[in-house]
Amino acid sequence: MSECPVCDAEVEIAGDAVIGELLSCEDCGMELEILKLDPVELAEAPTAEEDWGQ
Ligand SMILES: [Zn+2]
Fold first, then answer.
1. Per residue in 19-50, pLDDT tens?
2. CATH 2.20.28.160: does it fit domain 2-46?
3. Cα 48 to ligand 1 centroid, rounded to whole Å
4. Residue 18 CA to ligand 1 centre (angstroms)
5. Ligand 1 centroid vs 30 CA: distance in angstroms?
6. How far apart are the CA of 3 and the centre of ligand 1, in A?
């Protein structure tokens, strides 16, 4: 378990999670990226939607 950096809800981290893995907070729905393991550190995943360059 770790904490959502956005809403502080507990977020379950899979036992085989890897750095860079994306998951979403069930509470606020934010996409989160695993920055570090042991201890787990989460950050909001970058929303690339506006970066697809048109
Ligand atoms: Zn959250």
1. 999 999 999 999 999 999 999 999 999 876 66
2. yes
3. 19
4. 19
5. 6
6. 8
Ligand 1 centre to CA of 10 (Å) is 8
Cα(18)–Cα(29) distance, rounded to whole angstroms?
A: 20
In this model, does residue 54 exceed pLDDT 90? no
DSSP assignment letter at 44: E
Domain positions in the chain are 2-46
User: What is the Rg, in whole angstroms, of the alpha carbon atoms belonging to the chain?
Assistant: 12
- The whole-angstrom separation of Cα 48 and Cα 20 is 15
Residues 3-14 have a mean pLDDT of: 95
